[in-house]
Specification:
The protein has one domain (13-100). It is 66% helix and 0% strand. The chain has helices at residues 13-33, 37-50, 63-86, 93-100. The radius of gyration is 22 Å and the shape is elongated.
């Protein structure tokens, strides 16, 4: 039985390996970033910025729907800050990025 490859005839083994290496590197970067305190604090800030503010366009949403959205976003920001509190107080961010880039 013969095996076939999914690469085109113009694609070299090296380019296939480079593509997979890039994907692996990116997955590792994301996994390591998830453990950094700064990542979770940044996410908390994003949720806080997404909360409704006076003067925002509300469309056809009801006051109850807007209040529910505000509570949901506030809770998400709180959970991110809690996750940040569980991360190591020592940031290894510079070292992490040196290793995976």
């Amino acid at each position: 039985m013969t095996t076939s490859t999914s690469t085109s005839s113009t694609e070299t083994i090296g380019s296939v390996l480079d593509r997979y290496e890039h994907g692996t590197r990116r997955a590792l970067q994301e996994a390591l970033a998830a453990g950094l305190r700064s990542t979770w604090l940044r996410r908390a800030e994003e949720f806080e910025r997404a909360r409704p503010r006076p003067g925002d366009y509300v469309g056809r949403s009801t006051p109850e729907e807007r209040a529910a959205r505000d509570r949901r976003l506030a809770r998400m920001a709180e959970m991110c800050r809690h996750r940040a509190s569980l991360a190591s107080p020592v940031e290894f961010e510079d070292l992490v990025w040196q290793v995976v880039t």
